[in-house]
């Protein structure tokens, strides 16, 4: 996109510094923290707004929100389609592939949320997103683990060591509760109720929910806390999962742990990550007879519409469920045995 594209010939005049994107994103950060929004969400918002600001600067467009219009936003969405994956990541190296449709949709929805905040705070008079359609995310089926892949990954863990037993417990807990990795790393000892097999987690938007787990996970958690959890580095450190030297386990560390065991198990064709365990757990829950309404509560989704992206059922699963739940078969009506009707002259004339 060339410089100046999307300005529509508007006169570029200086606006008060308080309406500049860079200043406003800091104001948003303070408000979001006060509202209890998650650090990950705030980080995503800052990344998105900075991407937009860089685009505006490169194209000599205004960076003051009071001067922006719908075409500036549409131009940014077109620009995202040409951005290489990880080109703006602080740690990962850029790749040749372009941003996925899901990534573009995430940036677009995040920027729209920022503009909704601007409108709610009376920083802008009109919202240009009322004229902009957010790019839709593609309907993509996410590959999940096969049961033998899960067993293979678990078999590569030395559960006789403290670190190994911790990793074993983490995989069991992620799969059984279908919690997010950020929820797992935020769990504390008081959040865990071993007797009732429940654990409190803090989901997106600072929403708390209670998630159940099974007897196998109950036994693993009890043994981990009793025998393998290291002493915390600080006396008041009550995070459930700790590193070998007593520090809280981070999201990146959990992701690296899973990738390590996935490599050792020779798993291919499936992304080995906490999110894949979440998807896998959801599908296994349904295959084992669970219902979508209970699954929605367990996973912490506000609507069933969001849940659709997690349900990766094959046609065989659907047919098997119908065979079990067929309305007519369950009435046990049967089909009456009748003789072949004899046609009479009247029927023949018809």
Q: What does this 3D model show about the protein?
A:
This protein is mostly helical and 350 residues long. The protein has two domains: 17-131, DNA polymerase, domain 1; 147-325, hpI Integrase, Chain A (Orthogonal Bundle). 49% of the residues lie in helices and 3% in strands. The protein contains 15 helices and three strands. It has helices at residues 21-34, 39-58, 70-80, 101-120, 147-155, 162-177, 181-186, 215-228, 251-264, 274-287, 292-299, 304-307, 315-325, 327-331, 345-349; strands spanning 192-193, 198-202, 208-212. It has a three-stranded antiparallel β-sheet. Strand 2 (198-202) and strand 3 (208-212) form a beta hairpin. Helix 1 (21-34) packs antiparallel against helix 2 (39-58) and helix 6 (162-177) runs antiparallel to helix 8 (215-228). The longest helix has 20 residues, at 39-58. It starts with 20 loop residues before the first helix and ends with a helix.
SSE topology:
Layout: H1 21-34, H2 39-58, H3 70-80, H4 101-120, H5 147-155, H6 162-177, H7 181-186, E1 192-193, E2 198-202, E3 208-212, H8 215-228, H9 251-264, H10 274-287, H11 292-299, H12 304-307, H13 315-325, H14 327-331, H15 345-349
Helix pairs in contact: 1-2, 2-4, 6-8, 6-10
Summarize it.
The protein is mainly α and 350 residues long. Helix content is 49%, strand content 3%.
Shape: globular
- The CATH architecture designation of the largest domain is Orthogonal Bundle
Order of helices and strands: HHHHHHHEEEHHHHHHHH
The termini sit apart by: 73 Å
Q: Structural class, from secondary structure content?
A: mainly alpha
Report the CATH C-level class of the largest domain.
Answer: Mainly Alpha
CATH fold-level assignment of the largest domain: hpI Integrase, Chain A
Mean pLDDT: 83
- Radius of gyration, rounded? 27 Å
Low-confidence stretches: 1-16
At the fourth CATH level, what is the homologous superfamily of the largest domain?
Intergrase catalytic core
